[in-house]
Design goal:
alpha+beta, Arc Repressor Mutant, subunit A, 2 domains
Length: 164
């Protein structure tokens, strides 16, 4: 477990808000001089709390007009088959998120595509052709109501142990 203090939380909140802040501006916002601020950011990176940096794109404006959640049930649960399935899914760029699930389905994946035809090609031309797949049930997003990549850090601030 990694101990975080209030300054660490301030750094993380500010960086989640604007990942392009210069170290100088970040240091001012959190009440540190630039050198200690930089060291803290580096520590947060090394410890894996800051996973990576990226630009967050608007999928709709980029041309992706369909978001689908595919619920997948497998035929068999043998390790070799699961490994092959994992590898095949993880190679697909349209699969944005992929989870092993409890409940009625084995896996849930968030898939983005330009249109319904493109998604249908993904499902029938790729997913359903995988020998381990028993069934796929798809839900389509009608309207995105909330989307954030920010973690609710305030929920962690009372107890400052970060579980890794």
């Amino acid at each position: 477990m990694i101990k975080l203090d209030q300054i660490d939380f301030k750094i993380l909140r500010n960086m989640q808000e604007n990942g392009r802040l210069s170290n100088h501006d970040l240091a001012k916002k959190v009440g540190l001089s630039p050198s200690p601020c930089w060291r803290r950011v580096k520590r947060l990176e090394v410890e894996g709390i800051i996973d990576h940096y990226a630009a967050i794109l608007d999928g709709e404006k980029a041309g992706f007009h369909l978001i689908a959640f595919a619920h997948v049930m497998l035929e068999k649960h043998q390790m070799a088959m699961l490994d092959q399935f994992d590898a095949a899914i993880c190679e697909r760029p349209e699969v944005l998120e992929y989870y092993s699930m409890s409940g009625d389905y084995d896996f849930l994946m968030k898939v983005i595509s330009r249109n319904i035809k493109e998604y249908e090609e993904f499902q029938t031309g790729f997913l359903m052709r995988l020998p381990v797949v028993r069934s796929v049930s798809t839900s389509f997003v009608l309207k995105q109501k909330k989307h954030t990549t920010r973690l609710p850090l305030r929920l962690l601030e009372e107890g400052t142990d970060w579980v890794s």
